[in-house]
Design goal:
This protein is of the alpha/beta class and 158 residues long. 28% of the residues lie in helices and 21% in strands. The chain is built from four helices and six strands, in the order βαβαβαβββα. The longest helix has 15 residues, at 124-138. It is globular.
């Protein structure tokens, strides 16, 4: 890539984790997919899974193995109840952790096989906050002075 050439917007996959939502009632997944598309990103897939650690891990592993997917955004399952298993499902897949958390919510980020992974709480309000305060600018390759999107081509370096 030429020095003045801007990287393309990332390809994103969105996963909603919920025992109570359906595709029709999934406001958080709908918000994230819509906000990503509105920001110029390509949403390659959107899925909804129940709170099943192994199903979540399998879906995220599938996406991080897919070279087309550059960012995975799981929403839901980050609380502290017995059914909240997204961190336990996804953390073993991470090569590097990007630390971050909140009381009673275990939102987190990391890198797996050169793919950025940011797990957000299940509430649409929390997804809006995470997107507007952090992810929107970090996934925008034109955001200055820095952004994670510009690092995507280098994340698979060994």
């Amino acid at each position: 890539m030429a020095p003045d050439e801007q990287p393309a917007s990332p390809h994103i996959a969105v996963l909603t984790v919920s025992d109570s939502r359906t595709t029709d009632t999934d406001g958080s997944g709908r918000f994230l997919a819509g906000a990503a598309a509105e920001a110029g990103h390509i949403v390659v897939e959107r899925a909804l899974l129940r709170d099943d650690k192994y199903a979540i891990r399998a879906k995220v592993a599938e996406w991080i193995a897919d070279e087309l997917v550059e960012v995975v955004l799981p929403t839901g399952g980050t609380g502290i109840t017995g059914r909240d298993v997204t961190p336990e499902a996804v953390a073993p897949l991470l090569d590097k952790e990007i630390a971050g958390s909140a009381i009673a919510r275990r939102a987190f980020g990391g890198i797996a096989n050169g793919t950025l992974v940011f797990a957000l709480p299940g509430s649409t309000s929390a997804c809006r906050t995470g997107w507007s305060k952090i992810l929107r600018e970090q996934l925008d390759p034109g955001h200055e002075p820095c952004n994670l999107a510009s690092l995507l081509p280098r994340l698979r370096e060994r």
